[in-house]
Protein: Solute carrier family 15 member 2
Amino acid sequence: MNPFQKNESKETLFLPVSTEDVLPRPPSPPKKPSPKICGSSYPLSIAFIVVNEFCERFSYYGMKAVLTLYFLYFLHWNEDTSTSVYHAFSSLCYFTPILGAAIADSWLGKFKTIIYLSLVYVLGHVFKSLGAIPILGGKMLHTILSLVGLSLIALGTGGIKPCVAAFGGDQFEEEHAEARTRYFSVFYLSINAGSLISTFITPMLRGDVQCFGEDCYALAFGVPGLLMVVALVVFAMGSKMYRKPPPEGNIVAQVIKCIWFAISNRFKNRSGDIPKRPHWLDWAAEKYPKHLIMDVKALTRVLFLYIPLPMFWALLDQQGSRWTLQANRMDGDLGFFVLQPDQMQVLNPFLVLIFIPLFDLVIYRLISKCGINFSSLRKMAVGMILACLAFAVAALVEIKINRMTQSQPASQEIFLQVLNLADGEVKVTVLGNGNTSLLVESVKSFQKTPHYSNLHLKTKIQDLYFHLKYHNLSVHNKHSVEEKTGYTLIIHEDEKSVSSIMVNVNISLGTDVPLNVGKDYGISTYRTVTGGEYPAVLCKTEDKDFFLNLGLLGFDASYLFVVNNVTNQGLQAWKTRDIPVSQLSIAWQLPQYALVTAAEVMFSVTGLEFSYSQAPSSMKSVLQAAWLLTVAVGNIIVLVVAQFSGLVQWAEFILFSCLLLMVCLIFSIMGYYYVPVKSEAIHGPTDKKIPHIQGNMINLETKNTKL
Structure:
C-alpha cells in the first residue's frame, strides 16, 4: 500500500460520523452470471465480439488491399498522388483512435461508441462503393464520394479500434483472468484470419469480375462493406449478454493536462530564488497527486524511446502502396495460378502466423542457449535493420524491372514507333528535328517488339514533319505531338502510293465488349483484358468471319494488333507490343516480404511487450495511444516523401532504407543508455503479467501486430 492510501485511510477513520445520518444499505441483488460457452469460463458474449472483429478486419484490409490500384486505374491519379492519399488515409486511421477513446471513456461508454461509429463505418463503405460505379457521374463525383467514404471509414475503424478488444476484456470476471489472456490470443487470431482471407479474395473480386467492361472495384469495395454490416449486426445481437461498464474518465486527458501544467508552472517560476526540483514533472505537484506524477515520469521515459519509431512504420506500411505499384509491373503468372499485384499483400499476414511461433519457439531459444542477451531493445533494433534490408532488396528488384521494361519519356521528349505495313522497307525522316532518319522494315517480317526512337522537342507541343520514301515514292506528312507521350506512326500502301486501307473488323474477346474498328483505316481504343492465352478469337468482317490467334497476352503489357487486307492474299494479322511485358516474376518480391515481416515480428510484437513491462498500470492506455500515433506519423512521412522527393522509385527505396538505418543508430544509442525498470518496481511484487484494461485502451502482451 502506498503512502497516499494510508493517509486516505486515516482521514476516513477520524471523520465524525453520526449513526443517524447513515441509513442501512439494502443488500445488493446478486449479479446474474453471463451465459458460458460449453460450460467453460468463457462468456458467450465473447463469441459475438470475436466474430465482429473478424468481419471488421476483413472489411478494412479487404478495402485497403485494392485501394492503390483504384486510385491509379479508376480515378486515373499518378503513382505519387495515389501513394500520398493511401498513406494520408492510413495516418488518419491511427489518429482517430484518440477520438474514439475519448468518446468512450468520457461520454458514451464502449458499447454505444462501437455501435454508433460502426454505423459511420458502414456509411463510409456505402460512399466508397458508390464512388466506384463507372456510370454514376463523372470523375469529380467519383473523387468526392471516394474521399468522403475514406474519411468516414477512417473515423469508424479508428474510433472502434481501442474499444472492441477492451470491451471483450470487460466481459470476464476477475477470477477468470487466465481465460481472459487466452481470449486475447483468439481475438488477435481473428484479426489475422480476417486480414489473410480478405487480402486474397478482394483482388480477385476486382480483377476476375468485370463491371461495365472494367475491373469491378464497386464489388471489391461492396463485399467488405457488406462484411461490416454483418459485423455490426452480430455485435448488436449480443447486446443483452454484455457487461457494459460505465465511462470511467479519460486517463489520456489527465496525462496531457498534468504535463502541460508542469511545463507552464516551470516557466512561470523561472526566477533564481525559487528552489529547483529534481524532475521537471515535479512542478505539477501543486495541482496533481504524487502517484499520478510518478506514473507520468515512468511514462515519459518510454515515450522518449518512441521518438524514432515512426520511421519504421513509414517503411512497413508501404506494402499496400509502393510495393503494390511495383508488383503491378511484374509478371504475376506463377504457372499454376495468376497472382494479382494487390494479392501479394496476403504474404504479410500469412508469414506473421508462421514467424511468430518460429521466432518464439526456435530462434529466440537458440540465441538464448548461445548465451546472448537478446533484450527487447536489441530485438527492435534488429527489426529496423531487417526492414532496411527489405527496402534495399526492393530497390534491386525495381532496378531489374526498369532494365526489362520500357522507360517513360521525360519533359520535352517523346517516344516514336514506326509500324510499316508496306511490302518493303520505308525510309522515314523526321524533318526539323535534327533530320532523324529511320529505316523501317516491313511488319510482315517483324518478329520482335518494335523499337521506340527517342525524340527531343523544342517546346512541350510541336508539329513534326515526316518525309516517307518508299521505292520511287516520296510523301510528306505533318503530325502534332505532345511531350511525355509515346506515338506510333503507321505506314501502309495501295497500288499507287503510300496510304491506308483496312476492312471493317469486329474483334470479340470472350464476353468482353467488342472492339470496333472503322472502315478503311481505324484504331480502336485500348481494352483491358485478363492476361492469358487467346488462341482463337472470333473476328467478323463484312464479307466473312475468321479466327485470329492472339497468342499469349502477358500481364501489364500493351499490344497493338494490325489486320490488313492484302490483294490476292486475303486478311492478314500481326501483333506487336506497344509496352513490353515485364518478364520478371512477381515471386521476386518474396524475399522483401519475408524480410519486412520478420522485421515486423521483431519490432512490433517486442515493442508492445517492452512498453507493457515498462509502463505503470495506470498508464497502459496512454502508451497504447502513443504507439498508434507513431504509426500515424510514419504514414505522414511517406506522404511527404512521395509528394516532394521527386526521386525515381528505386532511389526512393534506397532513401527510406538509409533513413531508417540512421534512425536505428540513434535508437541503439538511446537504448544503450536506457535503464530498464523491473516489473516489481512498477506493478508491485504481486502483480502478474496479465492483460490490463485501462479506460477503453487495450493493454496486453500480444503476439500480433495488426491492431
Remarks:
- The two ends are 35 Å apart (CA to CA).
